[in-house]
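RECORD TYPE: inverse folding
INPUT: C-alpha cells
STRUCTURE:
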C-alpha cells in the first residue's frame, strides 16, 4: 500500500512537470512562472515551500524530546510572515527576479555577489538534508534499497523534477502538495486522538518533563526561533514567489493565507508527534530510533495502511516541495546574478533556460555530496538558516526601509554576518562558553551553553551595518514602493 501510493504520487508529479515544461519559453517563465500565479496557487506554493523538513523532522524531534514546549516553535515563522504581509504588494510592484536585484540596485554589485554566495551556501545545505529526509521514507517503502541508494533516489527525482519546468512545475504541484499535507495531517491527528482517547489522555501519558508548555529557557527560545525568523524575512523563495504573483493584491492575499496555513500545519505536525510520544508511553507503538523520524514511524506503525500511506506521501510532499524550491532559487540567482550579469549579457531566452537546467543539475549534485556529511536535521537546519539570514536579512531590510544605509555598510554587514555565524558554530562559541565557565560566570555560562550562532551573528551584522553606514554617505534613497 505505502509503495503503491508513493509511486503513483511521484509519477503524477513528474507527469505534471513534463506538461508544464512545454510552457517554458523564457527565463521569466522558468524562474517566475510568467508572473501569472493566482492567489490559490501562490498560497499553496508559499505554504509548501516553508513547511519543509525543518517542520516535519525538526519540529517532530523537538516534540518527541521536549513535549508541549514545541508548540512555541512556529511563532517565529508567523511573526516573519506578518512582516512579509506588509511588504508583499510592494515587492510585486518592483518587478524584480531575485533579491540580489534589490541589493545591487541599492548597494552596488558587490552585494549582489556576496548575496549569491550566501544564498548558495545556505540553500544547498537545506537541499542536502531534504534528500536525507526523503530517504527516511523511501527506505521504509522500498526496503531493498540501502540508505545511500535511497538518498540517490530522492536526489535524482528532485533534480529532474526541478529542472523540467522550474517555477511552473514547482508552483502548480505545490498547491496539490499543500492539500495533501493538510488532509494527511488532519486525518492522522484525528485517528490518533481516537486511539488514545482524546487530548486529555494524550496529556496524561506524556512524561512529566514534556508537560510544561513554557519549558524552554530564554537562550533556547532565541536559538530555536531567531534563525527561522531571520530566514523568512530574507528568504529568496518567498520574494521569488511574490515576484511571481499576478498582481500586487494577489501577493498580499497569499501572504495572509500563508500566515494561517503555517500555524495550522506546524501545530498539526507537533500534535501528531505528541500523539506518537503518548503511543510509545502506552506501549501501543515502539519508540523510533531517531526522534526526528517520529512522523514517519507513526505512518508505518500506528495508522491504518491507507492513512499511513497518505501520511508517508505527505512527508515526501513536504520534502519535494521544499527541496525543489531551495534548488530553484540558487539556480535562478546564478543565472541572473552571474551568468547573465557577467558572462553572457546577450544570451537569448533559449540559452538562458538551458543554462538554468544545467545549473540545477550541478547544484543538485553538490547538495547530494553535502547530504552525506551529517545525520542531523534540527541543528543543521538552524545553522543553514543562520548562515543565510545573518548575511542577507539585515542589508535587505535596510535596502527597503533605511535611507541612511550605505554600500560599505551593507558589504560589512554581509561579510561579518557570514563570518560570525561560521566562527561561532565551529570555534568561537565553544571558546567563549568555556571562558565564561572558568571565570565563574555561572549565569552567563548557562545562557551561552544553550545559545547558537544566530543571535551573535545577527547582532554583529546589524552593528557593522549601522556603524559603517554612519561613517559613509548614503548611496540613494530607499527603493520606492
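DESIGNED SEQUENCE:
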Amino acid at each position: 500500500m505505502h509503495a503503491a501510493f508513493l509511486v503513483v504520487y511521484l509519477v503524477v508529479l513528474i507527469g505534471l512537470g513534463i506538461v508544464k515544461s512545454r510552457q517554458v519559453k523564457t527565463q521569466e517563465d522558468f524562474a517566475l512562472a510568467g508572473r501569472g500565479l493566482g492567489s490559490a496557487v501562490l498560497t499553496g506554493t508559499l505554504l509548501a515551500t516553508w513547511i519543509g523538513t525543518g517542520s516535519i523532522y525538526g519540529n517532530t524531534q523537538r516534540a518527541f524530546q521536549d513535549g508541549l514546549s514545541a508548540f512555541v516553535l512556529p511563532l517565529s515563522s508567523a511573526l516573519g510572515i506578518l512582516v512579509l504581509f506588509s511588504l508583499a504588494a510592494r515587492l510585486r510592484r518592483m518587478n524584480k527576479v531575485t533579491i540580489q536585484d534589490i541589493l545591487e540596485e541599492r548597494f552596488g554589485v558587490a552585494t549582489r555577489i556576496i548575496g549569491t554566495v550566501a544564498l548558495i551556501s545556505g540553500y544547498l545545505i537545506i537541499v542536502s538534508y531534504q534528500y536525507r529526509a526523503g530517504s527516511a521514507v523511501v527506505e521504509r517503502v522500498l526496503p531493498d534499497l540501502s540508505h545511500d541508494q535511497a538518498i540517490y533516489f530522492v536526489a535524482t527525482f528532485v533534480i529532474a523534477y526541478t529542472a523540467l519546468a522550474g517555477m511552473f512545475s514547482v508552483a502548480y504541484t505545490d498547491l496539490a502538495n499543500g492539500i495533501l499535507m493538510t488532509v494527511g495531517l488532519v486525518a492522522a491527528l484525528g485517528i490518533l486522538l481516537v486511539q488514545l482517547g482524546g487530548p486529555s489522555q494524550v496529556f496524561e501519558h506524556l512524561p512529566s518533563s514534556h508537560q510544561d508548555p513554557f519549558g524552554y529557557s530564554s537562550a533556547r527560545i532565541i536559538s530555536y526561533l531567531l534563525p527561522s525568523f531571520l530566514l523568512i524575512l530574507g528568504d529568496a523563495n518567498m520574494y521569488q514567489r511574490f515576484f511571481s504573483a499576478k498582481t500586487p493584491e494577489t501577493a498580499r492575499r497569499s501572504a495572509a493565507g500563508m500566515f494561517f496555513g503555517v500555524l495550522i500545519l506546524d501545530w498539526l505536525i507537533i500534535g501528531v508527534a505528541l500523539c506518537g510520544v503518548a503511543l510509545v508511553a502506552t506501549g501501543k507503538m515502539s519508540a523510533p530510533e531517531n526522534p526526528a523520524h517520529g512522523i514517519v514511524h507513526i505512518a508505518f506503525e500506528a495508522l491504518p495502511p491507507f492513512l499511513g500511506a497518505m501520511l508517508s506521501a505527505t512527508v515526501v510532499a513536504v520534502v519535494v516541495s521544499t527541496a525543489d524550491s531551495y534548488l530553484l532559487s540558487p539556480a535562478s540567482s546564478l543565472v541572473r546574478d552571474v551568468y547573465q550579469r557577467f558572462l553572457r549579457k546577450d544570451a537569448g531566452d533559449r540559452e538562458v533556460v538551458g543554462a538554468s537546467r544545467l545549473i540545477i543539475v550541478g547544484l543538485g549534485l553538490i547538495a547530494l555530496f553535502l547530504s552525506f556529511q551529517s545525520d542531523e536535521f534540527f541543528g543543521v537546519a538552524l545553522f543553514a538558516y543562520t548562515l543565510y539570514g545573518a548575511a542577507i536579512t539585515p542589508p535587505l531590510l535596510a535596502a527597503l526601509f533605511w535611507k541612511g544605509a550605505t554600500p560599505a555598510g551593507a558589504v560589512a554587514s554581509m561579510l561579518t554576518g557570514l563570518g560570525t555565524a561560521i566562527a561561532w558554530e565551529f570555534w568561537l562559541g565553544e571558546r567563549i562558553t568555556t571562558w565564561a565557565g572558568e571565570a565563574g560566570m555561572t549565569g552567563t555560562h548557562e545562557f551561552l551553553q544553550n545559545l547558537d550562532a544566530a543571535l551573535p551573528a545577527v547582532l554583529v551584522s546589524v552593528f557593522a551595518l549601522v556603524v559603517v553606514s554612519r561613517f559613509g554617505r548614503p548611496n540613494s534613497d530607499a527603493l520606492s514602493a
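NOTES: The two ends are 52 Å apart (CA to CA).
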